[in-house]
Amino acid sequence: MHSDLRYMNLSRLCTSPDYLSQLRKDVFVMIRQLGPPTFFVTFTSVESKWLPLLKCLYDLNSKKLGLSIPYDKLEPKDVVDLIQCDPITCAQYYSHHMRSLHTLCMKDNSIFGHLLYFFFDIKFQSRGSQHDHGLLWVANAPIYSLDSNNAIENFADKKYIY
């Protein structure tokens, strides 16, 4: 009985082998039922380039870090200190952007075309920043093993994706 409870709890922990095994099975089922995905995408955060995030971090943490110059004039080391000082705000900011991107992707004729299905997995880099890996199935997309290389290249070129 106790081992079953541990398994149930560990299977929900996103770094556990049980969770990753189930995730892998889910992806394999999607590929088996839907065919190969049209795109594999990776999105990552660039906290040091997002001025609204830096302003927010500055307003929250500048006194604690002893910063007196304006946030848009900070040295790179100070920017890194701001980001490392408040990883929760950085993660929430990135998550908000990703939710907005997911909403945009689900609209017809979005960035990728008419999206039929998608799958995203969130990971954290060693420095603590989030990044997402995704599989996207787009309507009327050429299929790698069935269509010609020219058809695939033309489709990808139309979508401006590199």
Write up this protein.
This protein has one domain. The termini are far apart. The chain is α+β, with helices and mostly antiparallel strands. It has 6 helices and 3 strands. The longest helix is centred in the middle third of the chain and has 20 residues, at 87-106. Strand 2 and strand 3 (130-138) form a beta hairpin. 10% of the residues are buried.
Query: How many angstroms separate the termini?
Result: 51 Å
The major sheet is characterized as: 3 strands, antiparallel
Strand content: 15-25%
Order of helices and strands: HHEHHHEEH
What is the tally of beta strands?
3
Q: Measured on Cα atoms, how large is the radius of gyration? A: 20 Å
The mean pLDDT is 83
User: What low-confidence regions span 5 or more consecutive residues with pLDDT below 50?
Assistant: none
Q: Helix/strand/pairing class, anyone?
A: alpha+beta
Morphology: flat
Question: How would you concisely characterize the structure shown here?
Answer:
With 162 residues, the chain is α+β, with helices and mostly antiparallel strands. Helices cover 51% and strands 15% of the residues.
